[in-house]
Design a protein that fits this description.
Largest sheet of chain C: 5 strands, mixed
Strand order of the largest sheet of chain C: 3-2-1-5-8
CATH architecture of the largest domain in chain C: Sandwich
Shape of chain B: globular
Order of helices and strands of chain B: HHHHHHHHHHHHHHHHEEHHHHHHHHH
Strand content of chain B: under 5%
Oligomer: heterotrimer
Distance between the termini of chain C: 57 Å
CATH superfamily of the largest domain in chain C: Cupredoxins -  blue copper proteins
Helix content of chain B: 55-70%
Number of domains of chain C: 3
Strand content of chain C: 15-25%
Number of domains of chain B: 2
Largest interface: B-C, 84 and 90 residues
Number of strands of chain C: 12
CATH class of the largest domain in chain C: Mainly Beta
Shape of chain C: elongated
CATH architecture of the largest domain in chain B: Up-down Bundle
Strand order of the largest sheet of chain B: 1-2
Number of helices of chain C: 8
Radius of gyration of chain C: 26 Å
Largest sheet of chain B: 2 strands, antiparallel
CATH topology of the largest domain in chain C: Immunoglobulin-like
Order of helices and strands of chain C: HHHEEEEEEEEEEHHEEHHH
CATH class of the largest domain in chain B: Mainly Alpha
Helix content of chain C: 25-40%
Chains: A mainly alpha (143), B mainly alpha (840), C alpha+beta (323)
Distance between the termini of chain B: 65 Å
Structural class of chain B: mainly alpha
Chain lengths: 143, 840, 323
């Protein structure tokens, strides 16, 4: 096996494409959790800038960055899939669910962009609550 | 690919090599995945039955209001042991046992990656479970719940029972983590040639993700249980509010494990469902890629749900809603799987035999449990139903519907493979209907009981709540479930003697385990199989591609070979291309002895006999050293063997091509997770403290930490240089650099230890001191491990430097990973401990 | 299978009919807060109940279709629509709805504050603005927001009066704030909802919602000093209280008894129950509680008190005058 169909040619890209969106989600979730748990009890929550607390702004910034990361990886995996599907080694019956043959890269790329779309959606949905708590974290604990 | 019965003389050596030793000694030394997988499953089922009996007793107490049948003490012990048994001793161990038994058969391997680790895992699991139940003999049964919330489980409020619980649980966690490593590396490395990532069966995918989840989740729980035991046995203050500790810290750590735990049990169950659905529909599961993605998604998202058990603790609402949103989105992953199964069954007209009946039960129950699941994820709604019988109903719908029913479907499906005999269909159907109807009678009324004011974990309730009828129905239903289970067990025992022979493939299923005889030979495959598609048995007639011809050549060379040592093919994690002939160990006593040492140490802690602890640790470390000691004569024999050469594959591989490298990586991840959990605890405690260090303690200075940091940096440089010296063949430089690196790590460990000893306060003063001592202590332990590994490697490789081969290179790689990790972790710990008090 | 969702709806509807019989029910709200949450439940039951039925219908269709049929729209598209698109739309909609309910449940302006402290296994209740201390019951004025400061003295407990609101944990580290606003006069039962040890099941309390003027009268009566013992028996009762050592654990306002180990007894005479909802506060049960508390609620901190019948009777009578 050689040429563009050879997964060894782009092994790093294949692994990044497969796990990248999930890792972007993980980074995003842990970051917004830490901001809400630790930030809401800190002075960050009291500083209001342009109608929202610094905590809210940071959550939004992290969200935008992780959406970009996840979206970028999705696009990368999609590109790999396109390239590998066009390769001469690809089986003729390459439907979206067909057995990818011995070429593992195409499966990984396909799973990568599929999960990329879903994780991007999830990152976006998980950030929704911040719009309901722009100025106030809803802290119930008393000092 | 089927295996003949009469072995020609040339193959007798091969079969003899794979046989275990006879007698009790052989039973203790067993390392093969098939007998150990069966032991795991049988042990787990016994615990399941015990846990069920405890549940029946609870239902008797709750059958009528104001009942005094059992009283509060016994009832609290019962629900603690019921939950702990089902979660820790049944669900995960059973599924791990199933995976250990089944994975090699599905992957086309002859055993799992680390057979001795399988044995160790089984013995620690068994010992942990026995320690749990030994509390009944001593009469101090754990009574703080399966979740053991602090401070109720702390030294002030709970007795010896909680120590039994914590130490038994620690052993079970170690067993779970090692089985997780085993599962992960086996799937990545020991697949049949041609089994690319895209051709892995869905059950294997679920176990791959589960293995990874176990490593993170169980390690965090192990850390938490150690911290709580330090509070209880060593007077530390992590969870003691009066000394700056925090009870919510326990809840965070516990649920960071506890929520993934549910999916650790559920994901393999979905793997079982996918296997049974495909076999009964006689077609591949629709939308394979999407189902794989859903499995991966579930694995990741399950780590973003833990706070949804803490909605009533008063966390900032913003944080709670992030978790609420994540809890809603994980339902999408379940939705993908459910509708993929429905699409697969569309027009498939399956036979309604026992596995499929249990599968239908799973569908009907699990969907309802999933709906109540997205309900309790809604923060304001959860404030009402949290800790009520609504939640009891919800998670029994999810865990019995989503795990136990698939497990029974899986048992009915795979038992013919394990025993060679089919279950009686009428008995199977009867057990299903009893269990299904009984289940709904028991748990459906509990939804309503929750709304009408019945909290969880109460041993009695007043008649004024109007809950007598609901509870009586629930109790009746519970006994019906018990009857259904009894019928199933009876049918199983009956099948062992009287069941119809199953043949190789009673269900015309697709995966490789159905290609060998039932029961399978102990080596599973005389000739390693080649995976020619996602469904190898459905694609036998397909013409072979060029790659497959090459794979056939390789496997032919390993037909009934090698004959004097156990071996299987190791393959590329992505492409499934053969990479080496992997040596597998034969019978060994050391795993049993290490587990025994841990058990003795645990008993020592419970009994407050520190001499026993010492004896246990010495035994465990000694046996472990023996286990890890390379056998030079064996290595020489492997180098000379003709079989690998015939296959054109190396016996020793390095880096990501070897199983050892992956095993070491897992160990690094586990240790890294422990450090991470402890650092989280450290910062969480500081978050709720007015001052850090608490209580006006002095900030740690750099007097000793400075030199320790220097020693660590030098040790790192030495390690880096030693690799170059090794590859350059410069013996003196190699010995000096790696030996020096070991010495540097040892020096740093001693400096940190001296710093601890010279501190003007002890670890029990307050939570800050506890965290400081424990983090430093973990760094010292890591450095001790790094030192031992680096010193042993220096000693061995010094003699092998001129004749160094791939095995020696691998040893240095593994040493670099472990020792290097210890250096980095210790350095990070020192920096955090000495800078954060200044910064915070 | 399909009937299950319907049965749930019918059962729940049937239950909704009779509020008086359900003193501890989340489905019989007596406040805006509990009402909002109950409405949230009914909406979710409708939406997710429909989803459940639709899923069962699809499963039935799949099993009953002729051999060889394909899922509608072809396999993968069916999974994408039914498993991703439809659930996402529904779940995101529910997320917005739940966020709106949640923000509507923010603490409103409160009339006064009550401090509730959880002990194993009873509730200490203090009205700092009114200078009233009691236990295991909470009197509140109808229609007014009562802010609660919840804390635990030992282990984690949880405050839950389902007819009025959801629950909130009492932690040993720091107080949490919560509130109640009863809209309908009545007695609502609450109970500890976080497992807190041996007698977790017997850690209940009552919330008594009184019209505003009655609440004012209740406050005034509690603030009136106790009369001096009017007869010899009452004087004996008071003496026994101290000689038998009751004061080692219990406080009685206006006397030398100031201990904080057990519930404050300043208003024990008006208490509705004994032992945090374990038994009704009748003369017989009060005497029984004093002499054999471990029979009624095994494991509680109170030791048995051995008294002559005459002394016990006097003590009970004196306690009954503490109103």
């Amino acid at each position: 096996m050689s040429g563009p169909g050879d997964p060894r040619a782009g092994r790093g890209r294949i692994w990044v494409g497969l796990w990248g969106p999930a890792v972007a989600w993980l980074v995003h979730f842990l970051a917004i959790y830490a901001l809400a748990e630790f930030g809401c009890l800190s002075p960050l929550a009291e500083r209001v800038v342009l109608g929202a607390s610094l905590v809210a702004w940071l959550v939004l910034a992290v969200t935008v960055a992780c959406l970009a990361l996840s979206g970028g990886v999705t696009w990368l995996a999609w590109r790999v899939d396109q390239r590998l599907s066009a390769a001469p080694t690809a089986p003729a019956t390459a439907g979206p669910e067909a057995d990818p043959g011995p070429d593992a890269g195409r499966f990984a790329a396909r799973a990568g962009w599929t999960s990329g779309l879903l994780f991007t959606l999830i990152i976006a949905v998980e950030a929704v609550p911040v719009f309901f708590y722009l100025r106030d974290c809803g802290v119930k604990a008393l000092p | 690919m089927s295996v003949g019965t009469a072995a020609p003389p040339a193959q007798a050596g091969f079969e003899r090599t794979w046989q275990g030793h006879p007698g009790l000694r052989g039973w203790l030394m067993e390392v093969n995945n098939q007998p150990l997988g069966k032991r795991f499953m049988v042990t787990a089922i016994i615990f399941f039955l015990l846990g069920g009996v405890l549940a029946l007793l609870m239902r008797l107490q709750l059958a009528v209001s104001d009942n005094d049948l059992l009283g509060p003490q016994v009832f609290n012990q019962l629900f603690t042991m019921h939950g702990s048994t089902m979660m820790y001793l049944f669900a995960v161990p059973f599924l791990e046992g199933l995976a250990l038994y089944l994975l090699p058969l599905q992957l086309g391997s002859r055993d799992v990656a680390f057979p001795r680790l399988t044995a160790f895992s089984y013995w620690t699991y068994l010992f942990g479970g026995v320690l749990f139940y030994a509390s009944f003999l001593v009469g101090v049964v754990p009574d703080a719940g399966w979740f053991a919330y602090t401070p109720l489980s702390g030294p002030r409020y709970a007795g010896l029972g909680v120590d039994f619980w914590l130490l038994g649980l620690s052993l079970v966690e170690v067993a779970g983590i090692t089985a997780g490593v085993e599962i992960l590396v086996t799937i990545l490395k020991l697949r049949a040639p041609g089994m690319t990532l895209g051709r892995m069966p869905l059950f294997v995918w679920t176990m791959l993700v589960t293995g990874g989840m176990i490593i993170f989740a169980f390690t965090v729980l192990l850390t938490a249980t150690i911290l709580l035991e330090l509070d209880r046995a060593a007077g530390m203050a992590f969870f003691d509010p009066e000394r700056g500790g925090n009870s919510l810290l326990w809840q965070h750590l516990f649920w960071f494990f506890g929520h993934p735990e549910v999916y650790i049990a559920f994901l393999p169950a979905t793997g079982i469902v996918s296997a049974v659905v495909a076999a009964f529909a006689r077609r591949p599961v629709v939308a394979h890629v999407l189902v794989v993605v859903a499995i991966v998604m579930t694995g990741f998202l399950s780590f973003g749900l833990w706070v949804h058990h803490m909605f009533a603790t008063g966390l900032p609402e913003l944080a709670m809603h992030f978790f609420g949103a994540a809890s809603l989105m994980i339902a999408v992953a379940s939705g993908i799987q459910v509708f993929a199964w429905i699409a697969t069954l569309w027009g498939a007209r399956p036979d309604y035999r026992t596995p499929f009946l249990y599968l239908l039960g799973f569908f009907l129950i699990f969907v309802v449990g999933g709906m109540t699941g997205v309900m309790v994820a809604v923060v304001p709604f959860d404030l009402q139903v949290h800790d009520t019988y609504f939640v009891v109903a919800h998670f029994h719908y999810v865990l019995i519907g989503g795990v136990v029913f698939p497990v029974f479907a899986g048992l009915a499906f795979w038992l013919p493979k394990v025993t060679g005999r089919l279950l009686d269909e009428r008995a199977g159907a009867a057990s299903f209907w009893l269990s299904f109807v009984g289940f709904n009678l028991t748990f459906f009324p509990m939804h309503i009981m929750g709304f009408l004011g019945m909290p969880r974990r109460v041993y009695t309730y007043p008649a004024t709540l109007g809950l007598d009828a609901h509870n009586l129905v629930a109790t009746a239903g519970a006994f019906m479930i018990a009857l259904g289970t009894a019928v199933f067990i009876g049918a199983f025992l009956h099948s062992l003697r009287r069941g119809r022979p199953a043949g190789e493939d009673p269900w015309q299923a697709d995966t490789l385990e159905w290609s060998v005889s039932s029961p399978p030979p102990i080596f599973a495959f005389r000739r390693p199989p080649v995976a020619r598609g996602r469904h190898p048995l459905w694609e036998r007639g397909r013409p072979a591609a060029a790659v497959e011809a090459e794979h056939q050549r390789v496997t032919a060379a390993l037909d009934a070979a090698p004959t004097t040592w156990r071996a299987t093919l190791s393959t590329d994690p992505l492409t499934g291309a053969p990479q080496g002939v992997q040596w597998l160990p034969g019978p060994a006593m050391s795993p049993f002895l290490v587990a025994l040492g841990l058990l003795i140490a645990a008993i020592g802690v419970v009994a407050n006999l520190y001499i026993l602890d010492l004896a246990g640790v010495v035994l465990a470390v000694g046996a472990l050293a023996r286990w890890l000691q390379p056998d030079e004569a064996l290595l020489e024999r492997l180098r000379q063997d003709p079989a690998p050469r015939a296959a054109g594959l190396p016996v020793f591989t390095t880096g990501a091509a070897s199983t050892g490298w992956w095993g070491a990586l897992c160990l690094v991840v586990i240790l890294g997770t422990m450090f991470g959990a402890l650092l989280y605890a450290y910062f969480y405690l500081s978050l709720f403290s007015d001052a850090w260090p608490q209580g006006g303690l002095e900030r740690p200075g750099w007097g000793l930490a400075g030199p320790a940091t220097g020693a660590l940096l030098l040790a790192g440089a030495g390690l880096w240089g030693s690799r170059r010296a090794f590859h350059g063949g410069r013996r003196a430089a190699f010995v000096g650099l790696l030996g020096g690196s070991a010495a540097g790590a040892a020096a740093a460990a001693v400096l940190v230890l001296v710093e601890l000893v010279r501190l003007p306060f002890g670890p029990g003063v307050n939570a800050y001191a506890s965290a400081h001592f424990t983090l430093s202590g973990l760094a010292i332990l890591a450095l001790a491990m790094g030192t031992a590994v680096a010193a042993a490697t220096t000693h061995r490789l010094e003699r092998r430097l001129e004749r160094r081969d791939a095995f020696d290179t691998l040893q240095l790689q593994v040493t670099t990973m472990l020792h290097g990790f210890a250096l980095v972790a210790a350095l990070a710990t020192l920096v955090v401990l000495h800078t954060s008090p200044v910064l915070l | 299978m399909r009937s299950r969702g319907v049965a749930l709806a019918l059962l729940a509807l049937a239950l909704a009919g009779c509020p008086a019989e359900h003193p501890q029910s989340a489905l019989h709200p007596a406040s805006q807060e509990a009402g909002r949450i109950a409405r949230l439940w009914w909406v979710m039951l409708g939406v997710y109940g429909a989803v459940t039925l639709a899923t069962f219908a699809l499963l039935a269709a799949a099993l009953l279709r002729r051999r060889g049929a394909e899922a509608p729209g072809g396999g993968v598209r069916f999974v994408v629509v039914a498993g991703i698109v439809v659930p996402t739309v529904i779940l995101v909609g529910m997320l917005f709805y739940s966020l709106r309910v949640s923000t509507a449940l923010h603490l409103p302006e409160a009339a006064f504050t009550v401090r509730v402290t959880g002990f194993q296994w009873w509730w200490d209740v203090r009205y700092p603005d009114h200078d009233i201390v009691t236990a295991n019951e909470l009197y509140v004025p109808v229609g007014e927001v009562v802010r609660l400061e919840l804390r635990a003295a030992d282990v984690v407990h949880s405050f839950w009066v389902p007819n009025l609101h959801g629950k909130m944990d009492l932690l040993p580290e720091h107080p949490n704030q919560f509130w109640l606003r009863a809209e309908v006069p009545g007695v609502y039962r609450g109970q500890c909802a976080e497992f807190c040890g041996l007698q977790h099941a017997l850690m209940a309390f009552d919330v008594v919602a009184l019209p505003k003027d009655e609440f004012e009268r209740w406050v005034a009566e509690r603030r009136r000093p106790h009369p001096e013992p009017a007869d010899d028996e009452l004087r004996l009762g008071q003496e026994v209280f101290f000689s038998a050592g009751c004061n080692a654990c219990h406080a009685v306002g206006g006397t030398d008894a100031v201990a904080l180990v057990g519930p404050d007894l300043t208003h024990i005479g008006t208490r509705r129950t004994l032992g945090a909802g374990t038994v009704a506060n009748t003369r017989g049960d009060l005497a029984g509680w004093i002499s054999q508390p471990q029979v009624l609620k095994p494991g509680n901190l109170m030791p048995p008190t051995y008294l002559e019948p005459r002394e016990l009777h006097a003590l009970v009578r004196w306690l009954e005058t503490l109103r």
